[in-house]
Design brief:
Length: 422
């Protein structure tokens, strides 16, 4: 790493450096999956008690994964409502799984019963949608009646209007489940941190392969494919975006990779957004320089500012810090780069991007909300530096754990010596 400003401090990374293996071992520490599943389900039920609900009905595969540890066609069921799970606040967990896939989750101790789904989304039900929705609602209402102890409040994370109306017809009071589930997910157990570190280690292996393979003449798509291949071959699941760009396409940010040929002297910036092993997200951004040649003074200036921003903001993080307080104390983006600023200072991370988020102070009245950082939260600290009309931009991001003493690095991929100011 290049020379750091004296105000910056090294951050601990002991957890990252002691990532456990994932194979069977009788001699060392390992992740306890049953303990992790029990922890998560208990946190979901704590939220259901807090919100006075008889239970929740989950469609989002990430929420189902969190509450039960069950996985099945996650990306497909993100846009096809073919799988759902009922979690009673005091009672059973009933998984409704896709046709002939019930065997995939029968070994999980978190699930008491597996039933076939009643699918009522249009692709499945067509003109019979309302009929199917009514049949679905009757079965869900029966579960609420059996296990709710007279409570008729049901939290649901996704539900189209026909389903909500059918449930109300059975006397069910429907509330939003996404808030309670996000709050359940916000504090990570030691097993979850260990799983996240495995995912990050796979991500950083892919990044190292990308760094080694980067050369003038390859396309952005070819470089991006290396991360995908590494993720899949090492047990990961999917990548949520296509955020890799080079040269002039690095400014403004959020341009998806394409078949542009990377040229000598280009900056190449990317954001991994990778769902890796165990379903955990590794969300890390780096900007590389493509040789031959040396970075320009302007490229180093952009990179140095982005590096300064994320390190300034990481140094602020500690338990008890308010979300607005962070916005007030955060690194001030120079005026020339403010219009192209990244949308947040940081965001939570777990099985995906999640609560909380902290916007810049100028955006707080529009999109901010109150809250406090706590020990056990994992967050990603962001920076994008690129001027309107500028030739290039730099994207950097670190994934960290908030501890009693500040933050600990979970992402450890090195920054670019040649791009850091001397």
């Amino acid at each position: 790493m290049g020379n750091k400003p004296s105000s910056m401090r090294d951050l601990p990374e002991s957890l990252a450096r002691n990532t456990p293996g994932v194979g069977l071992s009788d001699t060392g520490p390992q992740i306890d999956m049953r303990r992790m599943r029990a922890y998560r389900l208990a946190r979901v039920r704590e939220q259901l008690v807090k919100h006075d609900c008889a239970g929740c009905l989950l469609y989002d595969p990430i929420n189902i994964r969190y509450a039960t540890g069950s996985r099945n066609m996650a990306v497909w069921t993100l846009h096809n409502a073919a799988r759902y799970c009922f979690v009673a606040t005091e009672g059973p967990v009933v998984l409704f799984d896709y046709h002939n896939t019930e065997h995939l989750s029968e070994h999980l101790e978190t699930i008491d019963e597996i039933r076939p789904t009643t699918s009522w989304f249009f692709f499945s039900a067509g003109e019979r949608l309302r009929e199917k929705a009514e049949s679905w609602a009757a079965e869900i209402a029966d579960l609420v009646a059996r296990h709710g102890g007279g409570n008729r409040r049901l939290a649901i994370d996704h539900c189209n209007p026909e389903g909500a109306a059918a449930l109300r017809g059975h006397g069910i009071d429907v509330i939003d489940a996404q808030g309670p589930l996000e709050m359940a997910r916000v504090i990570k157990s030691a097993d979850e941190i260990a799983c996240m570190n495995v995912s990050i280690s796979v991500c950083e292996a892919g990044m190292a392969r990308m760094r080694e393979a980067l050369k003038a003449g390859m396309t952005e798509n070819q470089l991006w494919a290396i991360l995908h291949q590494t993720n899949i071959e090492m047990g990961g699941e999917w990548i949520e975006t296509r955020l890799l760009s080079s040269g002039g396409r690095t400014n403004p940010w959020f341009q998806e990779c394409n078949d542009r040929i990377i040229r000598p002297g280009d900056l190449v910036a990317f954001d991994t957004d990778m769902i890796g092993p165990f379903g955990f997200c590794a969300d890390i951004s780096r900007t590389f320089f493509c040789g031959p040649g040396k970075p320009t003074a302007e490229q180093k200036r952009l990179y140095g500012l982005a590096w300064e921003q994320i390190h300034h903001d990481m140094a602020l993080l500690k338990p008890g810090l308010g979300f607005r307080e962070l916005s007030e104390k955060a690194w001030r983006i120079p005026n020339e780069f403010f219009a192209n600023r990244y949308s947040v200072i940081l965001h939570g991370i777990g099985l995906c991007d999640e609560y909380p988020k902290s916007p810049h102070l100028q955006d707080f009245e529009k999109s901010g909300y109150n809250g406090t950082f706590e020990t056990g939260m994992t967050v990603c600290v962001e920076s994008y530096i690129g001027a309107v009309g500028g030739n290039e931009g730099v994207k950097l991001e670190q994934q960290v754990l908030i501890t009693e003493n500040g933050v600990e690095l979970l992402s450890t991929f090195p920054f670019e010596d040649d791009l850091l100011p001397g």
